[in-house]
Amino acid sequence: METYSGKVAVITGGASGIGRGIALELARRGADVVIADVHEQRLAETGAELEALGGGVLAQRCDVTSDADVEELRDAAIDRFGQVDLLCNNAGVSVLGPPEAVPIEDYQWIMDVNVLGIVRGVRTFVPAMLERGSGYVLNTASIAGVWAYTWDAAPYITSKFAAYGYTEVLARRLRPHGVGVSVLCPGLVATNLGETARFSGIPDGEHADWIYFPPELADAVQPEQVGVQVADAMLAGRFAIFTHDRDEQHYKSWRSDIDASMGSIIEHQKTPPRSAGRA
Ligand code: NAD
Fold it and tell me: 8-268 sits in which CATH class?
């Protein structure tokens, strides 16, 4: 992809946070944008912000856990703009809690949104890209998709490793046929993700014991800045897009000696409680 001018981008989770940041930046660079989300109020607000930039905009309610909604999204985008050049599978949620105590239903929910939401997007939009021999898919994973940055977020980390692995496969599958693929691996970004987060399997009164976000990772960046990073990185054809240089370096050193990295991170972390209810 050499330019966004005249391209059509679909962004799930586009009403808020990182998706909104990407939508605004692509619109500033001349793309028509379709934002898809379940949050109807933010969908309208972000849609209005995008319209003010002057390009074509469609703001569509779409739940990425619904096959029918994702198919309707594709049909609406094609009706309005003719084709879709860039698909950003970005909608996501978070579940935190002790891995052995989080109910299966919460694991199923997060996998349905964060993993199968991406799969639905690919199944629905990519066949036309393959037929044309052009297009681009950006999937939002996380640094949580490349190493376990904590022990309090097993469902989230599991979903993001799956999103990362699936996207690696997509690159091998699609790039030979002219369809670009990138995976976004943000560190902390100041968004509304906390609003939909589920803290699950944690006994009353033990919340603080079971939550651990490593303080050295707490330097949040703004979603608008992420939008610029993503737009630049896709033009450069980068596969893994990190928002913090430190995370990219950490990932590389982590992989260079996995046993030593695992030992060191356990030595330096806050120790998790032994068991829920009897900590
Ligand atoms: P956000 O909550 O601000 O935005 C996510 C959007 O996705 C929301 O508008 C929400 O309504 C929407 N959404 C949730 N479930 C949906 C569904 N079933 N169908 C359609 N839309 C749905 O949060 P964000 O941080 O911008 O999250 C965007 C992506 O970035 C997520 O995949 C998240 O896991 C990932 N991420 C965020 C951070 C961070 O620090 N904020 C770090 C790494 C990765």
Answer: alpha beta
Q: Is pTM beyond 0.90 here?
A: yes
For residue 130, what pLDDT is reported? 98
- The domain spans of the chain are 8-268
pLDDT at 260 over 70: yes
Ligand 1 contact via 93 beta carbon (within 6 Å) = yes
CA-closest candidate to residue 160, choices 144, 173, 174? 144
- Integer angstrom CA distances of residue 199 from 25, 178, 196: 32, 41, 10
Protein residue closest via CA to atom 2 of ligand 1: 193
pLDDT band for 276, please (50, 70, 90 cuts).
Answer: confident
pLDDT digits (tens, 9 = 90+) for 3-32: 999 999 999 999 999 999 999 999 999 999
Instruction: Find the 117 Cα to ligand 1 centroid distance in Å.
Output: 12
Joined tokens for residue 106:
């919460």
**Matching residue, tokens 């829920």:** 276
CB of 179 within 6 A of ligand 1: the answer is no
DSSP state of 227: H
Active site residue 156: yes
Cα–Cα distance list, 151 to 5, 96, 157, 252 (Å):
43, 9, 9, 20
